[in-house]
Specification:
It contains ten helices and ten strands. The protein is α/β, with parallel strands linked by helices and 275 residues long. It is globular, with a radius of gyration of 18 Å. 48% of the residues are buried. It comes from Cytobacillus spartinae.
Length: 275
């Protein structure tokens, strides 16, 4: 189990990825994202997760510059958007993202959603990986059948699959498949956009441990061996979210949290979305 905020999991290609990071979905470009990322880095976060479609890569890049932490200590993820999928267009989208971030390389580049063109997109990611432009490549929002389809043509197996994951959506089949294939599961929207913070079982376990409901959920992620990237724009919350390395959930706590699963999403279903 990770012992602190800087602890990493070794991806199947040997690259070390922090277990815990900051997501910036829906964080506004400009001072909001700059201050959020700087606050995270100042308080020990190493991993920042953005995406082309979030339209805040420039702000993330500015924050990285202003934070004054050596680039090699950070782990920066971005994602290729659906309209840029395909071989050549992905290579172009990568350059655009890299320029906006002001970086020479990325730590992780993901296909944001499974599309018809994802196999061609994957070929582009493989090229970027072989060329040393990105240290690890992966996918986001892929179900088992999407992964199987990709693996049928992939020369390099995805290192990460970032999906909606929280106690109401435990993704058991997907989690098992990814473990078997050596693909690291990563959670987006781990708090179900705040919906889970009032869940009575979670509140009760939080009171027992003298922790917040958010801390209980994020600890559950880690004990299930899932990388997690909660989003916040408030510094005190950014600090609080990461304060989860000084306690442990018991097996009974874990069983109760696991029992909350109802396969319920707050985001779109990867089998049925129109963007």
């Amino acid at each position: 189990m990770p012992k602190n905020l800087q602890d990493t999991v070794k991806l199947h290609n040997g690259v070390e990825m922090p277990w815990f990071g900051l997501g910036v979905f829906k964080v506004k470009e400009g001072s909001e994202v700059v201050e959020s990322v700087k606050a995270a880095i100042k308080n020990g976060y190493k991993s920042i997760d953005t995406a082309a479609v979030y339209k805040n890569e420039e702000g993330v890049g500015q924050a990285i510059k202003e934070a004054g932490v050596p680039r090699e200590e950070l782990f920066i993820t971005t994602k290729v958007w659906n309209s840029d999928q395909g071989y050549e267009s992905t290579l172009e989208a990568f350059e655009t993202s890299l320029n906006k971030l002001g970086l020479d390389y990325l730590d992780l580049y993901l296909i944001h959603w499974p599309k018809e063109k994802s196999k061609d997109t994957w070929k582009a990611l493989e090229k970027l990986y072989k060329d040393g432009r990105v240290r690890a490549i992966g996918v986001s929002n892929f179900h088992v059948h999407h992964l199987e389809d990709l693996l049928s043509v992939a020369e390099i197996k995805p290192m990460v699959n970032q999906v909606e994951y929280h106690p109401h959506l435990a993704q058991l089949e997907l989690h098992d498949f990814c473990k078997k294939e050596g693909i690291q599961l990563e959670a987006w929207s781990p708090l179900k956009q705040g919906v889970l913070l009032d869940e009575p079982t979670i509140v009760e376990i939080a009171e027992k441990h003298k922790k917040s409901p958010a801390q209980i959920i994020l600890r559950w992620d880690l004990q299930n061996e899932v990388v997690t990237i909660p989003k916040s724009i408030k510094e005190h919350r950014i600090i609080e979210n990461a304060d989860i390395f000084n306690f442990e959930l018991s097996q009974d706590d874990m069983d109760r949290l696991n029992a909350l699963n109802k396969n319920e999403r707050i985001g779109p279903d990867p089998d049925n979305f129109d963007f």
